């Protein structure tokens, strides 16, 4: 099986049911390509269509994006036209890191003006921090230690950095919140 589960590419061929995507279009291919008519997708769980993790097809059920060519199911619903001026590098961050982090923030049900702890400040964690800020979190605690990630976490909206090397994360959060804890936790 060929690996790879997110990509940017140029469409070489379309099936007869594809109406909005054309040969030659530059597209963004997400990591998750659900069956949108499935009941799980209709309930808001597109990554779980047809079975657990069934929306994650590349390198799981069929050859992935590292192949010379690969098939995208439901192309009209699962591909996005690449906006003018967006670099390939920026686009590929959208299809997995940003979307995973943002979905983590959405699934955390952070109340408006609430607090959240994001554990892990790699690319997905940083995306979750940005997502939490966009969703209106007032207090965003970010657990991590890499200096460059700490800098970006603050730029994206982290209000406090938790250095897990100094003491257990939960103890630091309780101390920072005067024992209240946080409304939500995102573990990445």
UniProtKB/TrEMBL annotation:
InterPro entries in the record: ADH-like_C, ADH-like_N, ADH_Zn_CS, GroES-like_sf, NAD(P)-bd_dom_sf
Stated name of the protein: NADP-dependent alcohol dehydrogenase
One Pfam family it belongs to: ADH_N
Molecular-function annotations in GO: adenyl nucleotide binding; alcohol dehydrogenase (NAD+) activity; anion binding; zinc ion binding
Keywords from the named record: Metal-binding, Oxidoreductase, Zinc
Superkingdom of origin organism: Archaea
The EC number(s) this enzyme carries: 1.1.1.1
Domain Alcohol dehydrogenase-like N-terminal: start-end pairs: 1-73
UniProt similarity note: Belongs to the zinc-containing alcohol dehydrogenase family.
Domain Alcohol dehydrogenase-like C-terminal: from-to ranges: 123-186
Single GO biological process annotation from the record: small molecule metabolic process
């Amino acid at each position: 099986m060929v690996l790879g589960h997110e990509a940017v590419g140029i469409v070489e061929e379309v099936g007869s049911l594809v109406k909005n995507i054309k040969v030659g279009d530059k597209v963004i291919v997400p990591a998750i390509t659900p069956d949108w008519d499935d009941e799980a997708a209709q309930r808001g769980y597109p990554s779980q269509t047809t079975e657990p993790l069934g929306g994650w097809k590349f390198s799981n059920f069929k050859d992935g994006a590292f192949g010379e060519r690969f098939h995208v199911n439901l192309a009209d619903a699962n591909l996005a036209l690449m906006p003018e001026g967006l670099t390939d590098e920026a686009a590929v961050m959208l299809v997995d890191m940003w979307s995973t982090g943002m979905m983590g923030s959405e699934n955390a049900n952070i109340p408006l003006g609430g607090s959240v702890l994001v554990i892990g400040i790699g690319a997905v964690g940083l995306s979750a921090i940005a997502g939490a800020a966009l969703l209106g979190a007032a207090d965003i605690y970010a657990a991590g230690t890499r200096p460059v990630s700490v800098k970006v976490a603050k730029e994206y909206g982290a209000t406090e950095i938790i250095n897990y090397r100094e003491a257990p994360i939960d103890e630091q959060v309780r101390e920072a919140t005067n024992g209240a804890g946080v409304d939500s936790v995102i573990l990445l």
